[in-house]
Specification:
Two copies of one chain form a homodimer. The first copy, chain A, has 202 residues and is mostly helical. The longest helix of chain A has 23 residues. The interface between A and B is large, with 48 and 49 residues. The structure holds a DNA duplex (30 and 30 nucleotides).
DNA sequence: ATCATAAAATACATTGATGTATAAAATACA
DNA sequence: TGTATTTTATACATCAATGTATTTTATGAT
């Protein structure tokens, strides 16, 4: 029934107040949605709680979004970006993979809420065909982008498989490892991440 | 609001009718729960639909289970077993990994419902501390069992990391790959699974 | 300052779900 | 076959959530 203490306005001082209030409350709402999704999961996130978290009521939500789905989708669309690990040009594959491993492990810790939200949204997608298709299409673009980005840092000749496959495998492995670390951090310390990714270098 | 057509009694002819009806309806209910969870996800699975699917009403459920949670948990407890790929004694690591890859890909296709159910349950666990702890503890046992089983088929000296880590990595990778294949089968054909697992052999 | 417009709060209607209490039906047993 | 008991169905109370309609409040322009 809504925390009373932590009802802080999220988008308090982000820059100058500027003209478009609209955008600011939209952003605050989306941010709050992200928090709630991260805690409760995509399905059980309630608008009541989202609104309270942003210091407003549901009225504000329906003034800015058509439906619950639209708000939650807006969050996913806004905050869901692939990691960009700090790769080093010219370094050997194994080292690049170590960097990716560390970035993944770190992301699992620092952005748990977002990641849990993303994960739970994926489950949602799995049971909503239209959303699933949209998401699958989006992923294809992301893969392409990552392929391009990676091509600048690693030599395809060093890879144990075609670059396209490699990207997809990295994605699956990252997701799987993060997921398991959420469930039980003790069983998936950094060392496991590093071993896993390094093993992909022939 | 319940399909009227496909309301088939699931536990129709499984053996001789035998004395304990109790057990049979329990099983039928659990089975139906599995179906619904697989389609709707753990959170949105409704008792109404589960009961209808088993050709009964909610009355039967509450006569056999304390609550919704208990029924769903019963499903997870009953049907959630790790894969047992048909490994070959004495074969080189790479070949064993190929076998695991194929088994995983096949499982993704054949047991989609169960897997989606399991996945969505994991999300549920992530947002329910007690369940999460229980599940984490269970996983530790499973890891131990798999370690033992694997030790009979593969030579630790061939591994790129300690056996314990390797098992955990296999788990994370399988989960991640299956998840992605659910989302977009085209992007994760068998070949990707095979490349991914094979790459783990030094 | 006043008025028109937009944004947010409140009040309301509806829905879908769980869980309980009670009645009906099926089963086992004497 | 008749009765006690268990199992399932029905009816009911409750709750939490979404979405809509309406009112109040804030904002901006003239």
């Amino acid at each position: 029934m809504a925390r009373t203490a932590s009802q802080t306005k999220l988008a308090s001082a982000k820059g100058r107040p500027k003209g478009d209030k609209r955008e600011r409350t939209r952003a605050a709402l989306i941010e709050a949605a992200g928090q709630v999704i991260g805690e409760k999961g995509f399905e059980r996130a309630s608008l009541e709680e989202v609104a309270a978290r942003a210091g407003m009521t549901r009225g504000a939500i329906y003034g800015n979004f058509k439906s619950k789905e639209e708000l939650l989708l807006a969050f996913v669309g806004t905050h869901w970006r692939p990691l960009a690990p700090p790769l080093k040009k010219g370094a050997p594959l194994k080292e690049q993979l170590r960097i990716i491993a560390r970035a993944t492990a770190q992301a699992a810790d620092e952005r748990r809420a977002i990641a849990v939200g993303a994960l739970s949204f994926q489950i949602y997608a799995l049971t909503h065909e239209a959303v699933q298709r949209e998401m699958a299409a989006g992923n294809v673009h992301i893969y392409r982008a990552i392929e391009k980005a990676l091509a600048e840092f690693i030599d395809p000749a060093e890879l144990p498989m075609p670059l396209g496959r490699f990207v997809r495998v990295l994605h699956a492995l990252s997701d799987g490892l993060m997921f398991q670390r959420f469930l039980d951090p003790d069983q998936f310390p950094d060392a496991v991440f590093i071993s896993a990714f390094e093993a992909l270098a022939p």
